[in-house]
Amino acid sequence: MIEKKENVEILYTYLDEHFEPKENLSPYSLKDKWRVVPVGTAEYTSNMLSSLGGHPEDITLSPNLTGWYKIYLHAPGRSVLHLKLSSDPAFWVACATTRDDCSMEEFLWRCADMTGESLTLTRKLDASNYHSLISAIRFVPMSEDELAEYLREEARTDTKRIYATDDMHNRLYFTHPRTLDDWRSVAFNYMHSDVEWLSIEQIRNFVSCRLPTDDTSNFCFPREGDRNVQEQFPLFDYDEVLKTVVDQGHRQGLKMSVSLRMGAWGLTYPFDQYYFDCDFMQENPQWRTYDRNGDEISAMSYAYPEVRQFMVDELLHMARSGCDAVTLIWHRGIPYVLFEKPVADRFFELYGEYPYELPLDDPRLNALHCEIMTGLMREIRTALDAEFGKGKIGLHVRTLYSPYDTKYVGLDVEQWAKEGLIDAVISYPVRFHEMLPDEVWKDEAHTRIDLEKYTKFVRTKGGATIHPGDCELLPPIKNSRGELCGPDGQAEHVAEWMALEKKYGVKVYFEIMPRQLPNEEFKRRALDLYNCGAERIALWDTCCRAEPRAMWVAAGRLGHKDELADMDVGEGEYYHRFRVYRTANSDFSRYEPFWGG
To answer: What does the pLDDT look like over 162-175, one tens digit per residue?
Structure first.
């Protein structure tokens, strides 16, 4: 270890000498001990501490420091750390981004006033046998100028341009929260970032209450994490969970939203018995969606007032958490309304025929779908205003890729903006489209579908297509009449949405997918959006982006619109990678071992 002096950099390497109590350490890989592992790296030698899926007792480092420090952690690939300072109300989750056992990553965990603080590592929160490995801890004192700059950045509002969404499922899947305070860590990693809004998902109806017994030991879950979710879910009142996370976000200066997947009535096999197995759906099959040929679709239809009221009540329940807005997630769980009896009867009243032979993008049918869904939005806005006061709770929508794609499934976002029903729109790069070949049509103009041929087609080759959200750009797509629809390129994509912002005052955020990208790619994509006229960025599943701290260097600072082009997001001040050449007395400095087949 570097000699310890006040106001100088301190590097702890032989960690077994400094963490207490010593009885929680061992030279062996034991479930109830932290193993002491000699490591040689390109920059130092160390005794690393590791727990490979075990659950040893907590260990604590007391550095006896005064003043503000940058805290860097050193971890090899596949390491997930649960740690806290003594004044923290809960443990943070932080991890390395590397997946290479022959490299080490140093990353900036956080800045903190270390006066009177100690640092504790725990394994009690791990639920998925992830490994915790830490080889060094570096404390770098912050000068008066650095601290002033840090606090100035913390107080800036012009960089708060990120809409982050955390699905909350991550905490039950990967960890073992045991107290309400354990849930506070959901918000921790968004400290000192460009996040303006943090949206957390309502998981009160997330899991199934229909398993035959409370004992889940005999059930075959698709993944071990799914078992964790089922077993831990009954431990909490999720109204209190939401209030706790919302409170923590507000303490950090974040605007807080609670989000809901508007089509999550039940997942398909193999997750069908475990996730979103909603009692309301199971008990009311009469309100399901129906395809044009009479096939029942496994979703509830918003054509029915009872379904709309169920969701209005759920959103009101969410808003009582103390949040600033509720967010409707529309890019998952399509469809929302199809050819149900109320739709067909209303269409007949208007046009003197039934719509079963029409494509989804028939202008008359689409207008009716939009009318139904806009009615839902009016009901939501009216209910929120009645209980909380006009405009007190914001209404945000996560939509599909473009206004065309959104309207295709009945979501007329422009009409919602025009009526003042919504405050923010998040454009997500995914689209849903009915792909039908020539042979299912009755005529060359594609105005009428042969229902018998349609049924044969969808049962042998499929019907609607989901174009995935990992694409940066989606090309124009042909509608049923052969017309190209949707934006052609990023500039047009941004311009279409920003026109709504300029005309109606709704804020628009643009999603960057996939979840994990190289830092330079995060920067490039954000700059592309800004250069095309975007003002804000959205990040879905931010738990997957903020916990890998070296990745969050880029993703978490994308709101620095005016400085981003010159911002260094590569190795440097925030993270550094270097080689490991010896672990546990095995030297692979020249010959990396190969034991595969």
So the answer is: 999 998 888 888 89
- SS3 state at 441: strand
DSSP state, residue 294: S
Q: How far apart are CA 429 and CA 476, in angstroms?
A: 13
All residues at 6 or more sequence positions from 260 whose CB lies less than 8 Å from its CB, including other chains:
201, 202, 311, 314, 315, 318, 326, 327, 328, 329
Residue type, 586: S
DSSP 292: T
User: By the 8 A CB rule, do 31 and 55 touch?
Assistant: yes
Homologous superfamily (CATH) of 10-152+575-587 is: Galactose-binding domain-like (2.60.120.260)
Tell me the backbone φ, ψ of residue 515, rounded to 5 degrees.
-65, -45
Angle at 344 between CA 342 and CA 345, to 5 degrees: 65
Residue 187 has pLDDT above 90, yes or no: yes
Report whether the peptide linkage leading into residue 355 is cis, meaning its omega lies within 30 degrees of zero.
no
- Domain ranges, ordered by start, for the chain: 10-152+575-587, 160-283
Mean pLDDT of 436-458: 93
CA–CA separation, 275 and 137 (whole Å): 40
pLDDT recorded at residue 463: 75
d(CA 357, CA 451): 7
Per-residue pLDDT tens digits for 459-473:
998 777 777 767 778
Name residues whose C-beta falls within 8 Å of residue 375's C-beta, 6 or more positions apart in sequence: 308
Beta strands in 114-194 (DSSP E): 119-122, 131-134, 136-141, 162-166
Task: Identify the sign of the CA torsion 523, 525, 527, 533.
Answer: negative
Is residue 257 within 8 Å of residue 199, measured between CB atoms? yes
Q: Where are the alpha helices (DSSP H) in 279-362?
A: 279-283, 305-319, 341-351
Max CA separation in the chain (angstroms): 88
Burial 512-537 (b: 16+ CB within 10 A, else e): bbebebebeebbebbbbbbebebbbb
**Cα gap 451→441, rounded to integer Å:** 9
Which pTM was predicted? 0.94
